[in-house]
Structures are given as C-alpha cells and as structure tokens.
Amino acid sequence: MSQLSAIVIGANSGLSQALALELAKDNVRLGLMAADIDALAPLAEQLGPQTELVAIDIQDPEACRAAFDALWAQLDGAALVVINTAAAGLDLELPWALDKGVIDVNVTGFTALANAAFNHMVEQKYGQLAALTSIAGERGGPQVAFHASKAFQQNYLQGLRLHAQRLKLPITVSDLRLGYLEKMQGRGSRFWAAPLPKIAGQITRALKKARPTTYVTRRWRFISWLTALLPEFVYNKRKYKG
Ligand SMILES: NC(=O)c1ccc[n+]([C@@H]2O[C@H](COP(=O)([O-])OP(=O)(O)OC[C@H]3O[C@@H](n4cnc5c(N)ncnc54)[C@H](OP(=O)(O)O)[C@@H]3O)[C@@H](O)[C@H]2O)c1
Question: Domain residues of the chain, as ranges?
C-alpha cells in the first residue's frame, strides 16, 4: 500500500508540531507550510527526510495558493489537509489594524487555502479537510474580529461539507473546535487546559472518526452548550481583562 500524505498549514505552532508527530506515528508523509520554515528544522529532523517544508505568508493569498498547488503536486496529492494558521489579539481601543490583520489571516487566508484544498480533493475524488476553529466562533466576544472570523470558518466548513455531499464524494470536512486552552493554562487550570500531546491525540482520534464537529478537549462541549443558553443581557455582562 502506498504511503498516505498530509499537509499541515501553520506548522510552527506547538499544537501543529504535536499533531505532525501524532500523524507521523501512523507513517504519514508530511508537507508542512509555515511562515518561518527555518524554525521547523528540529521537527523536520524528527519526522524524517521525506518531509516537505514550504514557506508561506498567509497575508498573500494568491502566493499561498500557488505554494499549496506546488506542494500538492510534489506529494502527489494528500489524504488530509489541516489548517491551523490564525491571528488573534485583544485591544479595548478596537484598532482597525488589528481587525484587518485577523480578517486577512483567518478569513481571506483561510478561505484561499480551504478552497484550494477542497478543489484538489474534488479532483482527487477523496480527502479530509480539517481546520482548528474555536468555541469563540459560537458567539461574539471581546476579541471582536477573532470571534467573528472563527464563526466565518465554521460556516465555510459547513458549506464545503454540503458541497461534498452534493458531489457524492467521500470528502470529509472536520471542524475541530478548541476551547480557550491557552487562557486556562495561563490561569493554571488543569481541568480546562490540557497538555499538547493530549490535545493532539484527541484531534487525531477525532479525524479518524471523521466527525463533522469535535470539541477539543471534549469537556468544552459543555461550555458551548452553556454559552448558547445564556440570555443576551447576562452574556453581555461577562467580565474580561484588556
Ligand atoms: N491555543 C488556544 O488556546 C486556542 C484556543 C482556541 C482556538 N485556537 C485555534 O487553534 C489553532 C491553533 O492555535 P495555536 O495556539 O496553536 O495558534 P498559534 O500558536 O497562534 O499559531 C498560529 C499559526 O498561524 C501561523 N501564522 C500566523 N500568521 C501567519 C502568516 N501571516 N503567514 C503564515 N503563517 C501565519 C503561525 O505560523 P508561524 O509560527 O510560522 O508564524 C502559527 O503556526 C488556531 O486556529 C487558533 O485560533 C487555539
């Protein structure tokens, strides 16, 4: 049987690296795309010589799509594409530059790559497209553009799922909805945060089950349910720090 390939976009984050190592355990050949590929050298060494590294600037969507096309050809297709690039930030002055940066990366850049990956999978007639979104996308919040951009991603993924069904193709689209893990880690909560290998393990198991939406870690599904129940006047009184 020929070796499966996967592409991880935004490969420099700790979570992407943990995920790449999980995928490599299943003998998956990896194509890693990141802003700073020099920083990927130690990971690439662990993954082996077949690993492909590609530099991208997600703020240049056309160049990103061209780089993705070239990597796809080099790997001779891919069974899995994971999009993990993201920009975020909180500034209570709500500067336009912050919102624009978030939209460039999380909306325009994300769509440029999700669209490229999906169309390649249609041509290939199978595949799995996954993206790390956030529970933040389910309701507006203090990082205004970040919350809105994650809502966009979740909605876009749902639309792609609908197209896969229309085309009657075995293309799975997975929305991996992360809780506020780093924030909780910062607060010292072991219950609501989790170590990276545990998060990566839950993600790879969810990918294998091909579930449309998965909460990572699983207990964040409860917070999602609770957040949806809160009436507007209560939700808007939430306290947060700038
Ligand atoms: N960590 C959390 O608690 C949490 C919570 C909810 C949702 N999430 C979501 O989960 C995903 C991963 O989170 P994370 O904490 O691992 O994110 P992160 O550390 O901020 O990583 C984001 C990735 O995006 C890439 N990136 C950002 N701007 C870029 C640009 N202009 N060009 C190319 N790449 C760019 C970075 O690449 P370089 O390193 O090469 O610059 C990095 O690999 C994100 O989608 C995030 O929104 C995370």
Answer: 5-235
Give the residue among 15, 11, 14, 17 at the shortest CA–CA distance from 33.
Answer: 11
Q: Indicate which atom in ligand 1 lies nearest the CA of residue 58.
A: 32
pLDDT of residue 109: 98
Ligand 1 centroid from CA 194, angstroms: 17
pLDDT of residue 196: 92
CA distances 148 to 43, 57, 155, Å, are 32, 22, 11
Q: How far is the CA of 77 from the centre of ligand 1 (A)?
A: 24
Distance 197 CA to ligand 1 centre (A): 17
Low-confidence ranges of the chain (pLDDT < 70): 1, 242
Pick the CATH number of 5-235 from 3.30.530.20, 3.40.50.720, 3.40.50.2300, 3.40.50.11900: 3.40.50.720
